[in-house]
Amino acid sequence: MHFKHLVLLLLPFILLNCKADTIPLYVGTYTSGDSEGIYKFDFNTETGKLSNRQLAVAVENPSFITYSPNKKIIYAVGEGQSSAITAFKRNDDGSLTFINSENSQGKGPCHVNVNESGNKAVVSNYVGGTVSIHSLNENGGIEKAPQVFNHNEAGQKPAHAHSAQFRNDDLFVSDLGRNRLYHYKLSNNTYTLKSESIVKMEGNPGPRHFSITKDGNFIYIINEYGGSITSVKKTDGGFEQIDHDSTLDENYKGPNKCADIHLSKDERFLYGSNRGENSIAVFKRNVNTGTITKIQNCSVHGDWPRNFTIDPTGKFLLVANKKSSNIAVFNIDPTTGKLSFNQDFKAPEPVCLLF
Fold it and tell me: Please, which domain of life does this record's source organism belong to (predicted)?
């Protein structure tokens, strides 16, 4: 066979293999500066390179974004003029098309999560201190919230709901203002309060985000004000605290606000972001007891790492540095869990990364 004919025959397979190494990364931003909304990059899962930046949709302050289970819909919230959760349809070219918006029933929505069935979304309203639960219809559209929980109490400091996660029939909500991780339980399609806090949070740590193991037996809470992670274990009667660890290097004495937290794909390691120290704290996790030990504080090669994520292969960790307007990519050592800097890319005020 002539070489030219062989190349033409193999070209579709070559292109398919090249495409298989590239996956989309959507980036939520603040739009007060150069940003216009949600951006899409191509991410190479072999090299860690980001390329082909495009504006997926223009929208005000999409500061947190998440997928529907089938990844056909992206839901966004943001601290804009209107307090809303918005649904967008993903198109074949990577762009997003507006479906609808619904009032989030509280000021300053900062986080959204969708349940495994894809029929409910929960929004955490930071300024309002409320949590709204929305039904989602078959085309991904958002319905008015049939349930809204208000964590504010008369005579107490303001509530600041910061993140929430569905897990089977459980709903957990981290409230930074009330220093609690609320636990709600689903029964007859309605959520009711199971516990005002699964563990007692001493002082004013400011629980912000949390990560749950796949078996549901351990929860790791990152504390914004405390610069720490509270480790919690599920028991027969509820939950108990098993560990409490600083996220900061022992030599760092400056101001700091923790932000995000994620387990590695194999759950042997835990990562948390420090805004101020501008680092990712790396912890080795005992998979039997659930306790953690800090093994590294890695510079984020930028300023103010609000959010980070691990790519689907588990080989790379990507950090959204808000103030320096860049996304830093790190290699994850599969044996030690430690990070090493790979490269970084410009992005306007990135604050949320979604694979």
Answer: Bacteria
